Automatic annotation (TrEMBL):
Belongs to the CTAG/PCC1 family. It is found in: Cytoplasm; Nucleus. Its main location: cytoplasm. The keyword Cytoplasm applies. It comes from the Eukaryota. Component of the EKC/KEOPS complex that is required for the formation of a threonylcarbamoyl group on adenosine at position 37 (t(6)A37) in tRNAs that read codons beginning with adenine. The complex is probably involved in the transfer of the threonylcarbamoyl moiety of threonylcarbamoyl-AMP (TC-AMP) to the N6 group of A37. LAGE3 functions as a dimerization module for the complex. GO terms for cellular component: cytoplasm; EKC/KEOPS complex; nucleus. Transmembrane segments: none annotated. GO terms for biological process: tRNA processing; tRNA threonylcarbamoyladenosine metabolic process. Component of the EKC/KEOPS complex composed of at least GON7, TP53RK, TPRKB, OSGEP and LAGE3; the whole complex dimerizes. It holds the Pfam family Pcc1. Keywords: Cytoplasm, Nucleus, tRNA processing. This is L antigen family member 3.
Amino acid sequence: MAAPCTENNHKQGKLEFVLDVPFPSSREASIALQSLSPDREPRKGGISKELTVSGCTLSVRWRADEARILRVSVGSFMDHLSLVMETMEAFGPPVSVTTQTVSSTMT
């Protein structure tokens, strides 16, 4: 879900875009956060990106000086997010450490 630009940022000439991505579990949201967090913006100024997890939802907030920079950053992020989600789907839901330990001690 995307959120509109806030009034405060609009007065400062900043563009803002917020994306909430629901996941089936909080574990999967955390895995996505860990996978996507290392990607820093290549440009030093003009844009910032903040990733957080709340429950089963990954939230991403961008703030940018120019629409072009924002568009490129969001597009790149969506490509990476798609790859992370496809990978999670291909390997199935994450196995908890406790389940894995119990299974290996029983065999």
